[in-house]
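Example 3.2
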Amino acid sequence: MKMLQELSLAWAVPGVGPDCVSYRPPKWPPPVDWPVSLDSTLTPVSFYGEDIWDFTYWVGSPYKLNFTGGQKGSRAAIIDKGNAELLKLVMAWFIWGKFAANKPSTLTYYFTTIRPLFVVASRNGILATDLMRFPKVLDALKKVQKDSSLESLPLLLHRLWDSREDLGIVLLDSSRIQTLAEIACSHDRKQTPYIPPRIWSYQVGRLKECLDDYMSHRAAIEACFNYCVDAYAQIHGSLERAMILTGNKSPSKKPFSNQPQSAHANNLTLCCGKFVDVASRYGLRELLEKWVARIGNETKLTVSDFSQYLTLCQRVSYAYILNFTVQRKGEAASLRTSCLLWEDDPLGRIPMICGETTKTTTDSDARWPTSPSAVVAIEVGTSIAQLRMRCAAAHPEVNVTDADRADPYLFHRVFEPFGNATDRSVRYSILPQTSGYLRTLEYFPRLFDPEQLRITQEDRRIALMFTPWLDEDDDFSVGKVWPLGWHQLRRTSAVNMFASELLSDSSVQFLMKHSAASMSRYYGRGRGRLRINEVATKVVITSMYEVRAEEAKGLQSDRYVSPLGFERIREDVVDLIAKKDAKALAKAGGNGQVFFRLIRLGACTSQSDCQYGGIESVAHCGGGETGKPCSEVLFDREKEVSITEELQELELEISTLPPGTPRHKALAHERTALENYLNVIAE
């Protein structure tokens, strides 16, 4: 009964409200005589049991869903009666179920993406619910479905799999969805590159360092900015005149120079002197020299360098948000300063980025789960946006509205009169074009050290795991500087949510395991009733299945060892796929025969949920409390270095704690578990 109350029509139709017969099904599955659509007088047009559902009156233009095909005048591929009934149930879920289509165009996307699956089943004389028994049939999808739709299909099937208890049927389980995802990936030879963990960690670490530097100097930066703006306003007579005169090619008075200048505004004489001295007075000289000073001319800071620094921090904020939201570059570029929201959830307080999405489904209130780490990027971006708003609002041709003043765009162009802008009269509603990530590095050469971005053999090995075509591209060969791109951040972040074990930097590793865990649950399980961005979800879910395939390959080597005897694990797991490939292991996982989940010590093979997790603490996994490791754990030999370092840090912390305290006891159990791990892999 509770599930029925949660069902409802997702898109707004005039006259169709909660009291309308077509607003929600009376039961599930819906009865054949239930009217799925009505005309303008609320008279039934189509019923659930019919082969064609007509929503023309709701949409305002011809709109029909044809479940069987083959009718006169129809070019739709034929689907037999049994599969047509299954397709109706699926489409009813996509219209009235959880996270149903919120407008007709989205429903069309769902229908055209999922229908070929039933066409293939019909052509092979089986029901779509039997496809798991005939995996080779899935290969036929390549002949009947467009590449773009085939790439979207795993996301829709994952949602149906996640809703299987309420839906009442299973089309494909997680292992078969993984197989389908691999088929889809074979079409996309030029898939967006996955950034190697070392390089990803380096760039995100430098971005964070830049943001932290800004926040530690925020008060001084804001005070210095206002001082500089006041200086220009005074020397020109008003800020409005300063904005107009410095925004064209006519000569402009400048308050910062080596020689005193006279200004006749208000009969005052203004002399600010060298800007480098102003920067020193505000405690900003070293900060500006670190991030934007021209190499070799660190002592010749100008006020335009200060403006460049603000632009750098804006770009860094933008890049950091892209690293932790899986947003497109255009979606992040259109964010406002009010974009950060928090949702209370059993997982904890989850930060959400709220903005506008512009592709697949237009939504002015789309959500992207993010990491708490991204909050600092929004704070920096907000500070700079508010500073520059003072100048933008003073220009009569920029047309800043009251709404803009209250909630500026997070990322916009240079407006201050001392910035390197040739025209400050562009309307505020027109956002600047976003230059590429590599162009940002050209503008700001102090941001990254190119040597840290050079590709090593290990970088290349890991990158090829998720982007095989890089092997044929010379730009990604060993010794070259990795060509960073905004879109790469989307895919890399999505993969890292599930493959954070690859990350070498301990702080980023901690971040991705904890913060991104909640992010992945939101994308993967559709938590809450928020409209989580559709395309971002697709990227994350597709990456999840890619990572599963890579994880499975590790069990076919001697990389993993059981603390209770490797032969036992071999009997339960390895022999299952000894003469097969990684897909067999994924199949076993989907059938409940074996489970494989990465934890700090290696992997967990438990077939049920584990209350201990293996991330925050490994005391139970490694036998820290009982002296005997868990029977479901596999130790990863490649963790030896990181576990050894962790044990050394743990020893230092334990030595500072009073014996017998709860914290001392907990860390002692953790130490025993790590020691057990090292003893096992040493045998």
